[in-house]
Predict the 3D structure of the following.
Amino acid sequence: MMRTNKTFNGERLKKALAYNGLSVAELADTVGCQRQTISMYTNGKSKPMDEDTVNRLSEKLGFPVKYFYEKDSTIKTGSTYFRALLTTNKKYRSEQTQKMEFVAQIYNFLQEYISFFPLNIPSFTPNMSPDKAAEMLRDAWGLGNRPIENLIHEVEQHGILVTSFSTTTNDVDAFSQMIGLDGHSYFLIGYSNNKTSAARIHFDIAHELGHICLHDWSEDVESLEKEEFKRRENEANSFAAAFLMPEEPYRRDAERMQTTIPHYTQLKRKWKVSIAAMLRRSFSLGIISMEQYQIMMRVLQRRGLRKEEPLDDVILTATPSLLKTAVVMLLNEKVFTEKQFMDELSFAYDLSLEPEMVEYLLDLPRGLLSPCKIIPLHSLKLKP
């Protein structure tokens, strides 16, 4: 119902549009409003005067009516690094950025009740090489030189939030965002669960770690010159390769192997990294020549292995579990019922969402916060 004692918040409408990947024009067409009217709602120059209009906006965008009358969060979001910034439509980037903002707000709620792991990222000197930074992070996390079996678990254990959700385009691989909360900085990494290969997911996560460790988060990434952005992407890729495949042990393994798909498949089983990434690492370390690297990449292309490699359906990695565990703990320990959880998020944190949206954003089991209602039984009797 319309809350007459509150004011419609045009910023909330703008965020709901971004979340759904809709333009003002697309929304106007579906709710029966003029495009200019919706535009005026989003910039605060006008407000819906009748309850029916807000109800139509709510129904189309999938947000509760109350959401549009709440104040905005005080959480400060920094830059967002997208691996495919130069090729992904801005609409898709805005969609994922908005989702991450909601995740940050939910995390703000959860940390009032749950003791999360503190952020454990060393202080890196300016212009430190990606290889040196990767070595420092491995030392800080006690990883030694061993292959990393479950990178997502390691990242979560050291205070970085990870979540995954489906995306409306395969152009979005992974992205990372910094948030400011109560004077502290937190990092979130999101990745598309359209991608199921553990080896590729590991590299995506390590790439985002590279941005977290190496790059400035106080500036607008989208304002960077094209060449500067490419330089940072290359540095993040180099960091990921060095972090996942430390030079000394990887070199020993790779130098014993012939440069063939079967032999690199054996390496993949151990290092949990894609064949393409290992070939690139071998070339950068001087283990194979540029000619060998190019030949192997053509072989992968010719055999249709660029999109799906050997062992992609065998090597597994755990899904993000930190935020899921926090929600399940609050429910199991009877801190909240499902309804109380959603009510607290709404009343105390000004974030009224449908339960299904929170389940989607945190990759929770469907129905966890919106259990099916039990159908009441009639007092019938069996026939004798």
Summary: The radius of gyration is 24 Å.
